[in-house]
Design goal:
Layout: E1 2-7, H1 14-27, E2 32-38, H2 40-43, H3 53-67, E3 72-78, E4 92-96, H4 100-112, E5 119-123, H5 136-140
Parallel strand pairs: 1-2, 1-4, 2-3, 4-5
């Protein structure tokens, strides 16, 4: 299986970990995971500060190594909502609840280009201790930590 996933991944929190883990599970030990990582320019639109592409890439690579996934993987720059997903040959797109509409749009655009539709796997958001979803914005505001534990 060839799986694609994308994001800013900063700070790399429990929700991101779930998204990446599921991508590797779906790819299987002999599959491939392509991770679209937002460029500094594209990530600059976020409401919170974002570390550099190089720093975020190092965090993602460290997470993958820590878990010992055996599927092949690579990271490619993501400079818009779609990246290479419009034209690439792959099987599964893994997205969060938040980005599911973009995945549907990707499949529509692929169909218009004569490409095969890909399976969409939606990952539910991970909730913090207070029952609200973990997000990078909440972490940067100091409300929760990367695991969803309340700070204030």
């Amino acid at each position: 299986m060839r799986v694609m996933v994308g994001g800013t991944f900063d700070p790399l929190h429990a929700g991101h970990r779930k998204l990446l883990s599921r991508s590797f599970e779906l790819a299987g030990p002999d599959g491939e995971v392509v991770i679209g990582l937002t460029t500094d320019e594209f990530a600059g639109a976020k409401v919170h500060p974002v570390r550099s592409y190089r720093e975020r890439l190092a965090s993602v690579a460290s997470f993958i190594r820590e878990h010992g996934y055996t599927a092949a993987w690579r990271v490619e720059p993501l400079s818009d909502r779609y990246g290479s997903a419009l034209n690439a040959d792959f099987d599964i797109l893994v997205v969060s609840e938040e980005t599911f509409p973009v995945a549907v749009e990707i499949n529509d655009l692929r169909r218009n280009r004569g490409k095969k539709r890909v399976d969409l796997h939606e990952i539910s958001c991970v909730l913090a201790e207070d029952g609200r979803r973990i997000s990078s914005t909440r972490i940067c505001r100091g409300e929760i930590d990367r695991h969803g534990r309340l700070i204030r």
